[in-house]
Amino acid sequence: MVAACRRRAAHAVQRVTATALGPYQSAVLRIGFAGTWLLFLLREVPHRRELYGPDGPWSWDMARQLIARNHAFTALMWSDSAVWFEAVFAVAVLSSALLMLGWRTRTMSVIFMLGVLSLQNRSIFVGDGGDNVVHLMAIYLVLTRCGRVWSLDARRAATTARAAATAPVRDRVGPVLWGVMAVPLLVGTVTDGVTVEVWLLVLCWGMWAAQGLWWLANRRGPTGEARALLDVLANILHNGALLVIMAEVCLIYATAGWYKIQGSRWQDGTALYYPLKLDYFSPWPGLSDLLAANGIVVLLLTYGTVAVQVAFPFALLNRRVKNVLLVVMMLEHLGIAVLLGLPFFSLAMITADAVFLPTGFLLWLGGRAATRPRRPVPKSGGAPAPRVPVPSSGEQ
User: Fold this and answer.
1) Residue 391: left (phi > 0), alpha (psi -120 to 50), or beta?
2) How far is CA 86 from CA 41, 49, 51, 96, 376, in A?
3) What is the reported pTM?
């Protein structure tokens, strides 16, 4: 019995330290959250100055007074210049796009996090629940190895591995990017070092130092002990961050469900009726009125929402029940996006739910996304062959 427990413990430790678990789930998180934030920023380009910039009702002086008390980080407080605001906004958009594509994922995840924090902490009264989720997940993504699959980094790694079989390959872009990143980190430390939270400084400088050690270990010996040790530490951080993300999603649903139970409108089954009657949450008034007019449907959806949210953390004990509830919750968020006009909140929550999707389903989905119709070349003198979908050679 003791020997069996030791073997299981050794196997668990080996799995956690030797493997970055959930590579496809973490890739979906990277693509989903970066894409959600990118779409939001692009939609708000005409209103960016009113939301986060110098033309907003929450002025720069008011934001500075608040940040002096809560010690939140935002690069927009380094200067009240309109040029500086446009530069920070542009970097936030660019880092979101590059992180979604998976280019230099480790570096882009840090810049993405700083962009999210800079904009959201500048005007804390313009966000919703979806913004809070993106805020948290942007921090967790920094610690994950979310570029192992479905990324430009993975494609570059495969190309480098093939080229290294014939001649040594050196990464020139990485060291340059590493050196360039030291400048804004140093400026931020000097500018915000007194007021910003210490954990953020430690995280940013720690990631910067870790990238330098990683490059040095690869340069000295890609198969050496130093590289193996850094690989183990990266796997532990990745697996720990993935566990925290799962716990965070469960906490979101459990908290929302149990708070709803205490509300009288949720208890009598009429809670869904009221937002359907608000103009602000009715992008399709006719559809909202049609749904609100059916008391049975409103009752079932209200009780069903509470039941699913409360039950989900317990459903993780059974894979089939968990998968069914995942489908139900994703459909619920799609309904929220359409009926209540909250597309970015729904995208953020669907992305968070995706951390629990089965790997087999994600592989099937990736295979379908990598398959496209290809027109065959017709033979000379004959009729053109019919168009048949053929799997492409794109990376999974």
Assistant:
1) beta
2) 12, 9, 13, 15, 48
3) 0.89
Buried b (16+ CB within 10 A) or exposed e, 363-385: eeebeeeeeeeeeeeeeeeeeee
The residue among 318, 232, 19, 316 whose CA lies nearest residue 11 is 19
Banded pLDDT at 168 (limits 50, 70, 90): low
User: Of 103, 93, 107, nearest to 150 (Cα)?
Assistant: 103
Query: Tokens representing 355?
Result: 């951390």
Return the beta strands (E) in the chain as ranges.
Answer: 371-374, 388-391
Please give the structure tokens belonging to residue 298.
């409103």
| Per-residue pLDDT tens over the stretch 110-167 | 999 999 999 999 998 888 889 999 999 999 999 999 999 999 999 998 888 888 777 6
The SS3 call for residue 374 is: strand
Per the prediction, the chain carries an average pLDDT of 88
Helix 343-353 × helix 319-339 angle, to 10°: 170
Give yes or no for residue 391 having a pLDDT over 60: no
Question: Which residues are CB-contacts of 257 (< 8 A; sequence separation ≥ 6)?
Answer: 306, 307, 308, 309, 310, 311, 312
CA distance 77 to 45: 20
Tokens 């359907």 -> residue = 276
- pLDDT average, residue stretch 23-36: 97
Extract the tokens encoding 304.
């069903």
CB 93 within 8 A of CB 38: yes
